[in-house]
Predict the 3D structure of the following.
Amino acid sequence: MKIHAKAPNRIDLSGGTLDIYPLYVFLDGGYTLNAAIDLYSEVTLTPIPEDHFYFYSEDLDLKRDLSREELQAGLPQGDFFQLLVEIVRFYEPATGLKISTHNQAPKGSGLGASSALLIALSGALNQYNRSYMDGETLIHYGADLEARSLGIPTGKQDYYAALYGGINAIHFGLNGITHENLELTPSFIEKLNQSLVISFTGQSHFSGTNNWNMLKAFIEDQGKTREHLHAIRQTSERMLDALESADMEHLVQLLDEEWKNRKALAEGVSTPQIDAMILAAKEQGAWASKICGAGGGGCMLTLCPAELKPAVEKALQENGATIMKQQIAPLGLQVNVISD
């Protein structure tokens, strides 16, 4: 028997960073809006008779073999396999396992691949243990495990896209977290897909660093951080209305507005290379662009008229970007038991 699980990565439309505690408390709540895309993080579990755990990252060709005693001791912070080991240690499988992982996204993509992998591994172990925790419980444990592994506060938006798929509105506030899968018309989702360009800038990023800098800047009232985060909160509320009313014109205006406020949050959110790519896309008719995740590199989301998509993609490529042919994924976490 094997267990295979896959979870989609995401593009964030508006309100990233607002999902970090206690930032959304300071802001009196706020929406994060994102969309799952058909780019996946995958896990395969193979039970083995010996009490040993074999970790293998297929995309990076990295391996780590641990006895149960070594698994229980954990790995040092910064080790590539640390978070995966934390998850397996938490779920305490009764037997040894071979754990193979694969991220389709490039490393440092800003598409939430590590969180999607966490959800995929949690879902697979949940199935293997037959504990059948619900999705919100998987998110709760996963977020705490990732924060402990990184040693800094983390957001939760990535887990919702990975678990539920589709286009998500997640509200973070004093009364807790509420999640809604937006039921948009098929014609509007198709219009979004036809207008959507996702590209990898070639620069990897580490979301924890930028998010931590933004949180510290808010607490210490540095520059105009508070002003720009309040503006992003308002943008997200208006973007939710634009999505629900299928108003593409308003949506792209708000995407541009979100990016202008986001890149002003902290030094390094944008770079000269990113600015050049966004300008090149705009010169070929793109409506709006923004970096996914905390910024500083990774992947970029661009919306443009469908008929101008080839020209926009070419302009991005000429400025060093790699075009990724992804679309919105309607399904979230999928777990399958494969018989021998």
User: Anything to note?
Assistant: The domain at 186-324 is CATH 3.30.70.890 (Alpha-Beta Plaits). The longest helix spans residues 225-244. The chain has a mean pLDDT of 94. The chain is about 40% helix and 25% strand.
